[in-house]
Amino acid sequence: MADAPPPRPARRLALRVVPYWILGDGLTSLVLAALAWFLLRPWLADNPWHKDQWAEWWPIGERVLLVLCLMLLALAVLVPPINYLRWRYDFRSDLLVMRYGILFVEERTVPVRRMQHVDLSRGPIERLFGLATLVVFTAGNEGSAFRVPGLPVQLARELRDRIVQMRGDGRL
Amino acid sequence: MTDASDPTPQPPGPAADAGADVLARGHLHPAILLLRFVDALRQSAFPALVGFAVDRWFLVVALVLFLLQLGHSVVRYLTLEYTLTADELRIREGLLHRQERRIPLDRIQDLGFESTLLRRGLGLVVVMVETASGRGVEARLDALSREQAEHLRDVLLAARPAHADGAGAVTGEVGGDPAPRLGPPPQQPEWLVHRSTTAELLGRGATDLRLGAFAVTGYAAWEFADQLGFFGQMTGVLDDLQRWLLSLPPWLLLTVLTALLFSVMAVGLVTSTLGNLVQFHGFMLVLRGDVLLRRFGLLTTRQKTLPRARVQRVTVEQTWLRRLLGFAVVKADSAGGSRTDGQDTAGGWDVVVPLTRATTAHALLPALLPGIEHTTFSWHPGSKKLVLRTALQGVLLAAAATAAMWWRLGPMALFALLLVPIWTLLGVLIWRNLGWARGDDFFALQHGIIGRTFACVPTAKVQAVVVRQGPLGQLLGVAELTVYVAGGSPTRLPDLTLADARALSRQLADRAARAAAADW
Q1: CATH annotation of A89-167
Q2: I need a surface site. Which of A118, A141, B176, B304 has the fewest CB within 10 A?
């Protein structure tokens, strides 16, 4: 390949996406952990089927469950900041580039003129933080939606308008 | 954007088509009522049967069902009207729930004709209109007469604005009148691209490795028989059979079982061969102007147009058996159709050549992707790190499997370590088959494990490019490149070096953006 790889995109998401993610994902994780600890644990403890075999394994099992629950909660707190640090997006001439991910790092490039339509989506907690997610769709069916989360509403609107303006009436 | 996909509610009355030039207008063919009558009869046959046999109330149910069905089709017949103007196809239908669907002509990707044996006898054709909405068939005109359908197609193809041809040579203006000719255009000469011989179709059936499909059918039949309580009566017979089998000497038993297995396979082979023969009988691929036309089918005849400019991807697929024998299947994706690699869509819509010599298949490519003959592909092999990655995956998998099974099986769990050489071998095979090339206007990829698939994507059709690195990929510095087009499944290119992947991604995206700008 003769051409040099392109520079990485520069723009970051709004910082308040971190508390939003912590709250949004944290709530789910909290509920899951609570369910596991307060419902699943007692139910497993007096499991009627393999009482004799279970008896010696149970203390270990209980500890494993505890570690799993704590890990769930820790991940809900730790992942959002890292994710925030990793998330980058930008417009490079006619292209929208986004790069994100921790375990799986993805760099997605979408020509603006190929976008079929643009959505702004705002969930209830998202609205609380004044954030919006920009969703762009390209033609085709599989994997044709691309999302940029954690944008301040005003900026998201501007980006949307900019895309609509740039795009004109694209064709396949 | 005026997207055609949502049916717009329309005020009643014929005011809608005032002004625009109407190129064609029509209703469904009256014979559709006969077909629907037969359908309704067939659907109410079962309740009626139950009615006679079990309870008279079911007769009422059958009657109501019958009348509802018939009423629905009569209403549909009476209200459905299609109108073709210079820039859109309008289909209006419904009495209580009225809907009018407008499809701009330049959004129409594909036009398909289908006609079953019964419909053919009556001279009817089902017309299917496809757009890029991803839902496949956007509108279905059930049963037009053959003349009507052909007239519709000719007018439609002629009215297609000029910018539909060729990715590069694009001049069409959206607002301006492309000045479509009125009425059907003069017949353009047709070029025969490929005609399937019976031998080829037989070969397709014989190398069709879908014995799995046969097994599924067998299972369904078994389930059905089970539901009918068939087996209750059969058990006695089966027991006798089993006893008789066990009384046989072992060598005879073995022969009987082998014969049984072979007969099952033979039946599978025969059914798949017959199925392919019937489905693709008389397959012809014709180029008329810039439009590819396919005609095929014995019982249900199908006709499909595919403008070359709409082709999103062409694949030459070889399953291992076909590769061994040097044969290949050619398929083309258009926007809106969806399938994954190696899978056949129902009806064989995406098949461009059912089976041919692999060399012929590649020689046919210029007919499908004009301009590819001027493209010089310099092929790059995949990165050797691919083998390393798969081997590492194998190690991880083997370690996990061994750990998981150790407390059950003890040292026997070490057998899981066999996964490492198997995975490594897999990696070597994948690496040996992998190759990619980028020409100016095309992007080509060859991949496979035992079989081989060649895929070619016009770069102008690229919708999005994604570079992805998994945990192992980050460790080894390799990345997977995925190219999205509007039709078919995305094209994946595994294990490029990260720099290569990003550079390639940039080139493809830039090229796509330029093409999109030119379109516009």
Answers
A1: 2.30.29
A2: B176
B331 and B412 part of one domain:
no
**Chain B contacts of A103, Cβ < 8 Å?**
470-471
Strands B442-447 and B435-438: antiparallel
State the pLDDT at residue B9: 42
Q: How many CB contacts within 8 angstroms connect chain A with chain B?
A: 132
Cα–Cα distance, B320 to B376 (Å, whole number): 28
Test B132 with A140 for CB contact under 8 angstroms: yes
Strands A105-111 and A95-100: antiparallel
* 3-class state of residue B158 by DSSP: helix
Q: Is B161 helix (H, G, I), strand (E, B) or coil?
A: coil
Provide the residue range defining the domain that includes B114. 14-165+176-183
Nearest Cβ partner for A109 among B174, B469, B509: B509
Are residues B323 and B377 both part of a single domain?
A: yes
Q: Are residues B225 and B368 in the same domain?
A: no
Instruction: Give residue for tokens 């003349």.
Output: B147
Q: Are residues B338 and B479 in the same domain?
A: yes
Q: Domain check: are B117 and B147 in the same one?
A: yes
| CB-nearest partner of B487 from A101, A113, A140 | A140
Number of domains present in the structure of chain B: 4
What is the domain-level CATH number for residue B33?
2.30.29
Q: How far apart are CA B315 and CA B455, in angstroms?
A: 4
Domain range summary for chain A, segments of one domain joined by +: 17-84, 89-167
A1 touches chain B (CB under 8 A): yes
What span, in angstroms and rounded, lies between the C-alpha atoms of B107 and B125?
22
Residue for token pair 């609205």 = A127
pLDDT in tens, B97-108: 778 888 887 777
How sure is the predictor about B121, in pLDDT bands with cuts at 50, 70 and 90? Answer: confident
B175: nearest CA in chain A?
A169
